[in-house]
Amino acid sequence: MNTNETPPARTLPKWVGPVIFLLTAGIIVVLALLAVSIMERRWEAQRPALALKPIAQWEPDNAVWGQNYPREFESYRNTRETGTRTKFGGGPPRDYLDENPRQVLLFAGNPFSKDYKQARGHFHSIADVTGTKRISEKSPGTCWTCKSTDVPRLMADMGVEQFSKTPFAQLKDRVTHSIGCQDCHDPATMNLRITRPALKEAFAAQGRNINEATHQEMRSLVCAQCHVEYYFKDKALLTFPWAKGRGVEDMLAYYDEINFSDYTHAVSKTPMLKAQHPDFEVYSHGIHAYRGVSCSDCHMPYRTEGGVKFTDHHVQSPLLNIANSCAVCHRWGEAEIRQRVESIQTKVAAVKQNAEDALVAAHLDLAAAMQAGVAEADLTGPRQLVRHAQFRWDYVSACNGMGFHAPQECTRILADAINGAQQARLAVARLLAAKGHSAPPKHPDTSTREKAAAIIKAFEAGEKVNLL
Amino acid sequence: MNTNETPPARTLPKWVGPVIFLLTAGIIVVLALLAVSIMERRWEAQRPALALKPIAQWEPDNAVWGQNYPREFESYRNTRETGTRTKFGGGPPRDYLDENPRQVLLFAGNPFSKDYKQARGHFHSIADVTGTKRISEKSPGTCWTCKSTDVPRLMADMGVEQFSKTPFAQLKDRVTHSIGCQDCHDPATMNLRITRPALKEAFAAQGRNINEATHQEMRSLVCAQCHVEYYFKDKALLTFPWAKGRGVEDMLAYYDEINFSDYTHAVSKTPMLKAQHPDFEVYSHGIHAYRGVSCSDCHMPYRTEGGVKFTDHHVQSPLLNIANSCAVCHRWGEAEIRQRVESIQTKVAAVKQNAEDALVAAHLDLAAAMQAGVAEADLTGPRQLVRHAQFRWDYVSACNGMGFHAPQECTRILADAINGAQQARLAVARLLAAKGHSAPPKHPDTSTREKAAAIIKAFEAGEKVNLL
User: Cα(B309)–Cα(B303) distance, rounded to whole angstroms?
Assistant: First the structure.
């Protein structure tokens, strides 16, 4: 037994030590670079929060907000692009009166009969509201409500009622910034907030408190400040006719109860309702709303730039951005998604056109009955049918999306519009018959915008347009 | 230094060895039991294939097939349950004529005006086809086509044409087995197969080969052998009017081209079309078909018993089995699913009823025009409108599902039905006016089944029903 029994140490080759050292060093360098990259991306994502400059309470200038939020601002600025056509290709906004002269006659007696172009992006709101023929010297300040980030400040300064009753033209110098950040965001926290009182009041009228809305609901409700049906109470106060509900029948009951009409039809003398753009109400009846998809999810989808995820503020038709909107949930090809949407819209458009044909004929038939000397009292029933039928049609027609937001609901409403307009025509035919007129009234040629406008002008001037 | 330096061996307690042995044995036993269970379940799943008894080529008796496939047979046998009501609660099949006397008048001159009950399950097909008043001594053998597993054999024996032209009553003794296995399955392979020639011919007429259908497509196509629109070519040959397409306009164009009508309306003398039950055509226009969901996926969902997965052959409304059908894809509560389906159906039902009201009135208005002495030639136009309008309505109304299978398409079709019926009424009102009748025709009371039937009887007897 001796210590020599310990076996000799097995020595490694001399090059092993340096190689392990270098390998370890290399791995450390790579990991460090990765860590730096991660930190950079985090920093990039957090930079705005770190570099925030305070924004004044009523700051109307989107560019000032844009210093803190350049991506949101730059994408918002893209709303100046006017490529809003989808199915019908690119080009300038559509002129609905050129495309579809029926609408010239349907709105006879209302400014929409003279100027009805496809809406452009939010960027153009000041230019468009000051350029439209639908605004006149008699228009109230209310018409500014949805058009500018200057409005919350003016409402705070003047009070809502005073703001609304001030003539439109008098406010022109103080309203200069288009729709933007201030309309939907709290400048201190960037939380979404409701800046227009009509929506809050409409919620209150339904016994609901809008302050309890979730963030996801707010991603639709900020849009619902403006993309809704409304009327001017006492000729100025912006009011949503929601007290009985948001369906088309609810609104008709509301308007009938207060005996409201927007205009008297120049041809048929019917007390008409002009639907505005009940996008939010129609959307509420559809499957996307049912599944909790907000307006913003489709019209302002998320994007990433580098390490930053942000909301694309280029509000537009999802059909112009299918990959980032529809296709996030619907994993089909873009062409298939487009085809699917357009097949729904094509069906709505066909029923809508049938409603228009029936309504145009009903207005002209009513005018013929007046020429035939039918008593006014006998025309009340048919006129009420036309009033309801046209509001139903307009509830669908005036909206964006050609019924896509609630296909069955919109088709159902248009079916009722057709039914009402045809019932009015039948009643008028019998009234005409009682006056000895069995032949169909002679409808003048209103097949172009110019011809339709000329006929309306003759009616308004009290000239004889022989319909019998 | 001595050998005592070796440390004493550390001995384990004596009980350790037996415990390890027992634990190991226990684990082996448990694993063996698990293996046996797995083997049993596999065997259970494969047993049918192992124990198959040959089934004769034309075997009509479902019970014989059931010896090989007891689960499928037993679930099929549940189709004898008549709880087919959904929205309206349980109970016997609905009698549509009692519930909705408008249909008595709409089908005046057709057997559906006298006997129109809700369909019962496949188990009852022989009892129901021999019990209905819609089958008469003049009915051809064709009326057996969709009712029995004896039919494939008879068609093979007699030839399709001879089978179809043989009077219904003459075949009664040879057709005794209700709809079942033979109708959809190859007895040798159990593969799905098409046994009725009309569907194959309809595919061929569209330039398609049904033998190229996938298994998933076959899970709808076996249903499409019968749940379709059809007519009797040369008064006996079952034919689908699909040559121009499966849409309602395609079928109208087809029927107009061959100048076909099912019956002449007893009140309005309109050459009418009776839609059968174009369930497959309507389904083809809906979202479920678009996403590749077959009839069987919802109406015959998969089930498991022990280790065996099988198709539930209790064909029924998914609303009676929401958890296994709808809820497999739509992960909502059953009450919510039901509410969602019924809200769609309620909207369709409302538009459908408006179409019925317009159509009933149109038939009576046409009868009034005849009484007023309006020339037959002048009635051709209004009658064509009514013919088309009522087929549109019936295309939706005659189907199962109250439009649920394609909500927008059905609502669109009903809108067109309303439009056509009202246009007919307007034209007739002017014809009546030209004969000096300006007041609305006096429509008799047809508000109950009995009252409607009495009026029709008077018309058929040539009695004077004063409408002017």
Answer: 6
Going from the C-alpha of B406 to that of each of A216, B245, B342, B353, B439, the distances in angstroms are 30, 17, 13, 18, 40
Which residue in A has a C-alpha nearest to residue B437's C-alpha? A433
**Helix or strand holding residue A232 (H, E):** strand A231-233
Count of pairs with CB atoms under 8 A, one residue in A, one in B: 88
Q: Which two tokens stand for residue B347?
A: 């909207």
pLDDT score recorded for residue B307: 82
Task: Choose among B414, B422, B433: nearest Cβ to A433.
Answer: B433
Interface test with A, best of B408, B414, B431, B442 (most A CBs within 10 A): B408
Query: B43-83, pLDDT tens digit by residue?
Result: 776 665 667 899 999 999 999 999 999 999 999 999 988 65
Q: Which residues contact B322 (CB under 8 A, 6 or more apart)?
A: B334, B337, B338
Specify the length of chain A in residues: 468
**For A225-309, where are the alpha helices, taking DSSP H only?**
248-257, 279-284, 287-290, 295-299
Q: Do B430 and A433 touch (CB under 8 A)?
A: yes
Q: Shortest CA distance to B147 belongs to which of B178, B183, B184, B192? A: B178
Using CB atoms, pick whichever of B354, B419, B438 lies closest to residue A434: B438
Do residues B238 and B142 lie in contact, with contact meaning Cβ atoms separated by under 8 Å? yes
Q: Closest to A412 (Cβ–Cβ): which among B290, B351, B430?
A: B351
Runs of H (alpha helix) within A398-406: none
Taking alpha carbons only, the member of B273, B383, B347, B356 closest to residue B102 is B356
Q: What is the pLDDT of residue B9?
A: 63
Residue A207 has, within 13 A of its CA and on its CB side, a CA count of 2
CA-derived radius of gyration, chain A: 30
Residue pair A143/A129 in contact (Cβ under 8 Å)? The answer is yes
Give the three-state DSSP class for B140: strand
ipTM of the complex model: 0.91
